[in-house]
From TrEMBL:
Record field: compositional bias (Basic residues): 664-688
A Pfam family matched in the record: Beta-prop_NOL10_N
Protein name in UniProt: Nucleolar protein 10
Residue ranges of every copy of the Nucleolar protein 10-like second domain listed in the record: 369-417
Keyword Metal-binding included in the entry's annotation: no
Primary localization: nucleus
Start and end residues of each NUC153 domain: 482-508
Length: 688
């Protein structure tokens, strides 16, 4: 029995474990149960609770004694007796079953809707009658007061078959092109059908008139949902007299109050798969909705998720055992799953021992260990070359990675790295050799970067170890062993530049500190050699000597710093002199510049002006053009701006214009002089 927990809700999978093949004899099955511990420890709640290949629908009779399931291949129906915990009977059919309905309290009256347009009736002894409907059916419902069967399918009509009279009645004409599902309210017997256009039509069977229409496709689209096409209705279920749940083909579940056209709540499965089944759990006010991948349980008032289950195989149908915490699924696998959730309710009467079993398991909790599965991350899958399996049934998504079969993991690892064992063997040999080497005399290895600093630290550490026990000082971590300073001895960027100005100015201080430390160590050796009685006087003398030595050290340090500063100044002077000599020796070569076509060279100042002008903004350039008179901006009558530019002229054009201007002025002066002479001559003739 497999136990899982989600949102602190324990889910017990009663069908987990290995199943034995049908063709094995009873003797071999018993022998396997003795040998294999997993087979012996499994819980087989109902014997042979499975189908040959696939199970499509599963239902429980109203008295709770019989569980009926249909599947393939070959098409068949199996009835299981819960009181005997075994199979009651099995019947093979001519074609696959789309859906079926148990009309009586037990298995004595069953109706099957088959994929070949056939409607088959079974009684307690077996096959009773078969008929056909005009179009392919997809779902049907039974109206108890009138004994009518309502069939919906690939047609706009709803076919009615009266079981009391044994004939078809007038069909209901709808506005839909096709219908997928239907249901009848158990309180007031309102008939509802879900269409391919995403609408729900409600009909009154007494008057055979439509009394309501809901546009669920429009209501299912919210701000968070991404829908590629028009959602159609894939599931429909009534709850009491006023509530109705609708499932769409795009993975949304809408809860309606029949008095309103707007949904009370919209729940999205976020898988984009059609909703297969909807069930109501009244004790905790939960809705159990399922698509082919996941079963979700959520509160119908708030929409908050209660728990969820993700079986190994695709789900075809879900059945909740009445007034209990047992859940059964029909899926794309031979074995039909049985889940027990104690929070939903007690175990059924026929398996009341489950309550005691789960209580014992809760009293002795064990850590969940997945022996047959390996947890891998996305990076591990890429290294193994199995990234293409993401989204398939071979990988189960969990937290930040995936669970995969341990056998598949070992095979992939062997193919990706066939020499893994050899590498492991070499690593073990290397570790053994290192252990033996640790017993030998070890040489001090200096790092590649900052060797001088490392040597200094090693010497200081050695000196401190010699006198550390007697001085009773605190053990401080070494810089060489500290991970925070490891990069300083590995990265070449942290190499100490001894020729830099900062190092040369600080070097006298560092050297003096090291000398002072050595003197202190020698002084401590002398103090320890003397007796306890003579310790006080030397200590007083040592303090006086230390004070005098500290003053001498400070003076010496100041002198050395001054020397270093003088040396640095001299070096800078020499560098300046060398630069001057190099500048004097270098010969200045003429530089040639290319002038664009149509331009004349005046001076280097013009080019500098042009560069400055190009760096300015458009606004500054326009203002400059207005000052020079080459730009004229004026307002028009419409309210817009009009800008007039004057092109700059070249030097040749300017000279030509000046020559023409002089020529015109000369001609004007000549004309004036000629007219003046003519007037003087006329006056002379008059005087004569």
């Amino acid at each position: 029995m497999q136990v899982s927990s989600l949102h602190e809700v324990k889910i017990y999978s009663l069908s987990a474990g290995r199943s034995l093949p049908e063709w094995l004899s009873d003797r071999k099955k018993r022998a396997l149960q003795k040998k294999d511990v997993d087979i012996r420890r499994r819980i087989e709640l109902i014997q042979d609770f499975e189908m040959p290949t696939v199970s499509t629908k599963i239902k429980v009779s109203r008295d709770g004694q019989y569980i009926m399931a249909v599947g393939t291949y070959k098409p068949r129906v199996r009835c299981f007796d819960t009181y005997q915990l075994s199979q009651k009977f099995e019947r093979c059919l001519d074609s696959e079953v789309v859906t079926f309905e148990i009309l009586s309290d037990d298995y004595s009256k069953i109706v099957f809707l088959q994929c070949g347009r056939f409607v088959e009736f079974h009684s307690q002894h077996g096959h009773y009658y078969k008929t056909r409907i005009p179009k392919f059916g997809r779902d049907f419902s039974y109206h108890y007061p009138s004994c009518d069967l309502y069939f919906v399918g690939a047609s706009s009509e709803v076919y009615r078959l009266n079981l009391e009279q044994g004939r078809f009645l007038n069909s209901l004409q709808t506005e839909a092109s096709e219908s997928n599902v239907c249901d009848i309210n158990p309180v007031h017997f309102l008939f509802a059908m879900g269409t391919a256009e995403g609408k729900v039509e409600c009909w009154d069977p007494r008057t055979r008139n439509r009394v309501g229409l809901l546009d669920c496709a429009l209501s299912s689209v919210t701000a968070d949902t991404e829908i590629e096409g028009l959602p159609s209705i894939s599931a429909l279920k009534f709850d009491g007299a006023l509530n109705m749940a609708v499932g769409t083909s795009t993975g949304q579940v809408l809860l309606y109050d029949l008095r309103s056209s707007n949904p009370l709540i919209v729940k999205d499965h976020h898988y984009g798969l059609p909703i297969k089944s909807i069930q109501f759990q009244h004790q905790l006010d939960l809705i159990i909705s399922a698509d082919s991948r996941i079963i979700k349980m959520w509160n119908k008032d708030t929409g908050k998720i209660f728990t969820s289950m993700e079986p190994e195989h695709d789900i075809n149908d879900v059945c909740l055992y009445p007034n209990s915490g047992m859940l059964m699924t029909a899926n794309e696998a031979p074995k039909m799953n049985i889940y027990y959730i104690p929070v939903l309710g007690p175990a059924p009467k026929w398996c009341s021992f489950l309550d005691n079993l789960t209580e014992e398991l809760e009293e002795n909790p064990e850590s969940t260990v997945y022996d047959d599965y390996k947890f891998v991350t996305r990076k591990d899958l890429e290294n193994l070359g199995l990234a293409h399996l993401i989204g398939s049934s071979l990988l189960r998504a969990y937290m930040h990675g995936y669970f995969m079969d341990i056998r598949l993991y070992h095979k992939a690892k062997m193919m990706a790295n066939p020499f893994a064992y050899e590498e492991y063997r070499r690593e073990k040999i290397r570790q053994k050799i290192e252990e033996t080497r640790a017993q030998r005399v070890q040489l001090k290895k200096l790092p590649k970067v900052n060797k001088e600093l490392a040597l200094k630290l090693i010497e200081e550490e050695g000196e401190e170890q010699q006198f550390g026990k007697k001085r009773k000082q605190k053990n401080l971590p070494s810089l060489l062993k500290d991970d925070r300073f490891k990069v300083m001895f590995e990265n070449p960027d942290f190499q100490v530049d001894e020729q830099s100005e900062e190092f040369r100015l600080l070097n006298p201080l560092v050297s003096k500190i090291s000398e002072k430390r050595k003197r202190k160590l020698k002084m401590l050796e002398e103090l320890e050699a003397q007796g306890e009685e003579e310790e006080e006087e030397p200590e007083g003398k040592a303090s006086d000597a230390g004070s005098s030595e500290s003053s001498d050290d400070e003076k010496g340090w100041v002198e050395e710093v001054r020397k270093q500063r003088k040396l640095l100044r001299q070096e800078e002077k020499l560098k300046r002199q060398e630069r001057l000599k190099e500048d004097q020796q270098t010969l200045l070569k003429p530089q040639f510049f290319e002038i664009k076509e149509g331009e004349e060279f005046r001076s280097f100042k013009d080019s500098a002006k042009k560069q400055k002008l190009m760096k300015k903004t458009l606004e500054d350039r326009l203002k400059l053009e207005e000052k020079l008179g080459t730009l004229n901006v004026s307002d028009t009558t419409v309210g817009s701006k009009q800008a007039t530019f004057k092109l700059k002229k070249s030097e040749q054009q300017r000279k030509q214009q000046e020559a023409e201007k002089r020529h015109r002025q000369e001609r004007k002066t000549l004309r004036r002089s000629a007219s003046h002479l003519k007037s003087r001559r006329g006056r002379g003739r008059l005087f004569h």
